[in-house]
Design brief:
CATH superfamily of the largest domain: SPOUT methyltransferase, trefoil knot domain
Distance between the termini: 59 Å
Number of helices: 10
Strand content: 5-15%
CATH architecture of the largest domain: 3-Layer(aba) Sandwich
Mean pLDDT: 84
Radius of gyration: 19 Å
CATH topology of the largest domain: Alpha/beta knot
């Protein structure tokens, strides 16, 4: 298995599994993803999943995905090179962005596949993605169910891969390939500068910092910022912070 750093120059569609509890689910997810043409599997975990158990469920057809699987210690590292990420979740709450069904979200997501690094992220079987995980994503998808909302991890992967697969043929145009969107690394750097600037002017306080930054993330994620635009925002924040520092210096 491969735990080396991503190649940011290479376009990819990936499945990201965050701290899955059972290696069999990793293998089944690899098999499902391969069936729909997705060739990149990333796992966020502190340990090394049992390879034999993964391979048993992946079967020989998707064994290559297990052997090439990338492992990262944190979600932030795993998502760093991606321009667009879907968070899959059954959890709802006031701090979560508005959920869409897999079919709805793929209509917006599919046009961004061409020429970009994109991913669909799934949380642990027992708890799902945290708010901090969702903060790293630009889309949120919830599978509508009749009653009990929890599905097997591989089932959830299958539904999302299928919906992306069916959305792709009519979604990609030559124009989509010319866009240079900001990836997660660019966006996180921008959010860090925004947070510092807003703290400087006391718009953010210890009691509301997480709440307002989450709202700012959700707002800006709908804009689809390009790399040069995130650089511009960071430049404005850096200049602002420099002026604030100069003002506070004794004459």
């Amino acid at each position: 298995m491969n735990d080396k750093q991503h190649n940011p120059e290479k376009s990819m569609v990936a499945i990201i599994l965050v701290r899955p509890k059972y290696p069999e689910n990793i293998g089944a997810s690899a098999r499902t993803a391969h069936n729909f043409g997705i060739q990149k599997l990333i796992v966020v975990t502190d340990g090394q999943p049992d390879e034999d158990k993964m391979l048993k469920m992946a079967t020989h057809k998707a064994a290559h995905m297990i052997h090439a699987m990338e492992i990262y210690a944190t979600t932030a590292e795993a998502t760093s090179p991606f321009h667009s990420i879907i968070a899959t979740t059954a959890r709802q709450g006031r701090q979560r962005p508005q959920e869409q069904s897999p079919r709805q979200v793929m209509q917006e997501f599919a046009p961004q596949v061409a020429g970009n690094n994109v991913a669909i992220m799934f949380g642990p079987e027992d708890a799902g993605l945290t708010n901090e995980d969702v903060d790293l994503c630009q889309f949120t998808s919830t599978i509508p169910t009749a009653e009990f909302s929890s599905l097997n991890l591989a089932q959830a992967v299958a539904i999302h891969c299928y919906e992306l697969y069916t959305a792709l043929p009519d979604a990609i145009t030559p124009r989509d390939r010319t866009q240079e969107y900001a990836n997660s690394h660019d966006l996180e750097g921008m959010y860090e500068h925004i947070e510092k600037a807003l703290l400087q002017v006391t718009f953010l306080h210890d009691t509301n910092q997480t709440y307002w930054m989450r709202n700012i993330r959700q707002f800006l994620s709908r804009v689809r910022l390009r790399k040069k635009e995130t650089s511009m925002v960071r430049g404005i924040c850096r200049k602002f912070l420099w002026h604030q520092t100069k003002k506070s210096e004794p004459v």
